[in-house]
Batch of 2 targets.
Target 1
Amino acid sequence: MRRAPRLAAADPRGHARRRSAEGTAHAAPCGGAGRPVAPAGSDRRVLRLVARRASHRERARARGGLRHAADAGQAPDARPGTPGPSRTVRRGPRTPRWSASGPVRARATRTRPHSRARLRKKDMPPRPVTPRDIYELRLWQIWSDLLHVDDIGVKDDFFALGGDHAKAEAVLDTMAAQLDAPPLSREMFLEAPTIEGIGCRLRARSRKLCEQPVVPLQPHGSKRPFFFLPSGEGNVYYFHALARRMAPDQPFHALQTRGLHGAEPPFDHVEDMAADHIESMRSVQPRGPYLLGGHCVGAMVALEMALQLQRRGERVALLAAVDGLAPAPFFRDEITEIVQDPFEAMIFFGRGFTSWFDRELPLKRETLLAVEPERRSAFVMERARERSMFTPDEPDDRVSRVVDLGARICRAGYVPEDAYTGLISFFRAHDSALCETATGGWEEVSTQPPRVRELPGDHVTLVLEPHVDRLARELRAAIAEARV
């Protein structure tokens, strides 16, 4: 569905939001861990964009540091050495500063974190491969319940985990009941007694489950469900660790974007995406109050969902923005320009695979340039499968689908039509390269100041070991404060 262009939305304080020079406010997904990729070689256009971003930072620092004040009238330190308690940041008088590409916000000086690879990979044993699609997720949940084992990798042998033939029969019976698929024979189970092997056999019969819009990462419990949206690339499965660390009776459902599987194309507008997610969510919980959250641009889509529910008179008890930048134009035009080029978009999102799956995927520009354009998606997928980032039978076009989905969100030019009247809880990563102000811009889209909770990690490691425990604890606290 095509939408007519809208005028810039009014700011809650009465003045219009300024758009970029091209007339749109851009949103950036977190491919490449939320940072523009400065390529090696002679690509001067991208290098100019990165240099322009650096000049914005220096100019912003010279203009006065962070532009917010605490109740005591003194600006808090935006980069404390130790993550502090949550706080509500109150807005003071704001004077926007403008550049050719939109408002320039002053940013805090920082010490850049060490490389994630250095922190996570050295002297650490390899982690088990976690579920990568709905079939592996369902099998993981069945095995975990029957074997009473929580730390299961998809390549682990069922019998090495403590299973026996009686439990194998129980697994087969449960699979037939829960997966709505023809039962596998005992012989097929014994041929490949791993989650990965059985998942391949199930998908060979049907991939229909991959298209379902609601993924129950943690289906158990009687509490009000928490609905969570992934980043612009649409991968919901890297929140598996987070879902496992919520309260045992807290259902955790991820909302999967159309376009990654099946024949339906992705949406071109955030508003349409949000409306579709609301319908999917209401199939699980017909009425509010709702608990919503999102990571990266998933937080932006969650905001639009909250606005649409607000217009319908539905209550949103929690809107949790996990290191997501609010829909404002400043500092994001360069990423949008990068993804206009299909090759640059492939590099940008391909390098992001390392972040989402916590595994290294070397992707050199000169290597990818040597590959025929129509073969590049398959080329990247082959290397990703070799490193267990995707299932062994994942279609080659999955990479191009990811790139298309992320690029569409970048180009959507989303600006909220009105202000959100509820409280936004902003979970800010201490070493974030995406949210470089204390509030990430969320004060711009709500009539209330955001509740800020600063957490250890960066934009990606925030949701991975070892920092995911802290994020889960803070989310549990926020849900408890919602009192639903």
Target 2
Amino acid sequence: MSLPPFVKKLMTKWKINSLWDFFAIMLVFSLAGMSIVYVRRPVFHLVGITKETPFILKFFCWLLVVFPSYQIGLLVFGFLLGQWNFFWAKEKQMFSAILRLGRSSARTGDKRVA
């Protein structure tokens, strides 16, 4: 049985050798995403966000609630399915990218004249 090209490409990119690891990683992404959909609704309701709430307020609430919850969900489900090392490495990459972005925007915003 030959694997589809996209599976081979992802396995190479992620440096995994086992089809089980690939399946577990995809399952972690799915479980974390579905869980956050269920977490978002009650939290938004608790905070008082409705359909009439301005988009910008919904967006910032999403950033403060959904984004961190998804990252935690990835780590929790990754741990439960034996993929902790993979997801922990990805989290570290993401946070370092965010820090680099913050540093570069801080430098470009600095208009001091020497």
